[in-house]
Amino acid sequence: QVQLVESGGGLVQTGGSLRLSCAASGSIASIDDMGWYRRAPGKQRKLVAVIGSDGSTNYADSMKGRFTISRDNAKNTVYLQMNDLKPDDTGVYYCNAKLTVIRGVETVWYEHWGQGTQVTVSS
Q1: C-alpha closest to that of 113 among 10, 24, 39
Q2: Parallel, antiparallel, or unpaired: how do β-strands 117-122 and 77-82 relate?
């Protein structure tokens, strides 16, 4: 069984910074993409940033220049450094991982989500 455990959310003022972390654990054979998604109040969940196993990154346009995604493959952990936060950044941030897990003598590829961490930016 795989778990994604997120941490680092909280309340911050406009212009402040937060760093989110998400650690994957369990019978993991390999992890492909890891990413962060955000569900703003009353809206659908949308991509914030994603990072491949080779370190390649992709960001939503509104996050470019303010957010930085990184990962530590040895720790199966992905980070999201968020700077110059704005009230529109408020929402629940979800970690996502596309990975291969070991189930007995087999390996299975699937997509897994964390439970989410709340980020609130006050004006």
Answers
A1: 24
A2: unpaired
Rounded Cα distance between 102 and 37, Å, is 26
Q: What is the pLDDT of residues 46-90, one digit of tens each?
A: 999 999 999 999 999 999 999 999 999 999 999 999 999 999 999
Band (pLDDT 50/70/90 cuts) for residue 1 is confident
Residue 26 region by backbone torsions, left for phi larger than 0, else alpha for psi between -120 and 50, else beta: left
| Ordered DSSP codes for 51-97 | E-TTS-EEE-GGGTTTEEEEEEGGGTEEEEEE-S--GGG-EEEEEEE
